[in-house]
Amino acid sequence: LLFDAGGAPAKAADARGPSPSPVFMPAAADLEVALAQKNLFVVYQPKIHCSTGRVSGLEALVRWQHPDHGLVTPDRFIPLAEGAGLIDGITLAVLNDALPWFAKWSSDYEELGELTLSINISARSLGRPELIDTIVALCERSGVSPSKLIFELTETAAMDEPVAALTLLTRLRVHGFMLSLDDFGTGYSSMLQLVRLPFSELKIDRSFVASAATSQESRAVIRCITDLGRSLGMKTTAEGVEDSATHTYLQEIGCDLAQGYLFSRPLTPMLLANWMDKHLEKVGGN
Ligand code: C2E
Ligand code: MG
Ligand code: MG
Ligand code: MG
């Protein structure tokens, strides 16, 4: 049932319904029930070093398994959660799932080198400093060093509220967490804010990466962001890599990291462990 919980529509979950129903539009109350009944779960997508093909870390992506409507993807409930004041609850639910798994995988796959764990964080959490204390406590409890955690914030979120963003992001940095600017290229960063905010990674938006193989313009944008990241001392990650021609291009221009179906879809913990076993066999220990 939960075998392929990737970005594509869940065939297994959808096929269970009697007939193709109109798209489920959840209400805040549904989401509250889901949180209380633990119907949210987390899938993990490997992040790869472009040059070597070795895994560098994992991104946690939330899913909602609705008892009647099947799999609901985050695009359909994260904005709802933000509006209803439920987003911090989701962040904490994700961390509660991800930190113990990450601690286990870090030791099970020690030979692969130090791994990182990427967590998506909402702009709505930016105003709430208490959240950071809770996150720090969760890390301590699961024995995960904050330096292994990367918080991803979308470009739009970071740039809409640069003052709030600077305060929260600086606090996170002080605790040793790393920060990533997600979906880069789709928002409107001012170069000034980009330099001021303490990001250590730029994630090149999937829309450019998806069309890299066929569009020279997309390749130009990807190269430009990679150069910018390098000049500013940030790592660049291409998200949504689906073909090997794009992977080769990323290697050529010196993009640091890549994520996408070419390497793996987001996977449930069990399937991720299988993937890691095979990966270790393929690339060997360090
Ligand atoms: P994102 O953080 O930019 O995540 C990347 C999205 O691209 C994920 O969609 C992932 O499944 C999908 N993806 C990865 N590789 C490929 C590929 O090769 N091809 C294609 N077509 N898609 C690929 P997903 O999981 O549906 O998440 C969508 C967005 O929802 C995320 O974008 C993120 O902004 C948000 N999100 C996900 N989980 C969380 C969470 O726990 N908290 C918050 N605040 N937001 C989350
Ligand atoms: Mg992300
Ligand atoms: Mg993204
Ligand atoms: Mg996105």
TrEMBL record:
GO BP annotation list: phosphorelay signal transduction system
Segments crossing the lipid bilayer: none
EAL domain sequence ranges: 24-280
Top-level taxon in the UniProt lineage: Bacteria
UniProt keyword list: Phosphoprotein
Gene Ontology molecular function terms on file: cyclic-guanylate-specific phosphodiesterase activity
Protein name as catalogued: EAL domain-containing response regulator
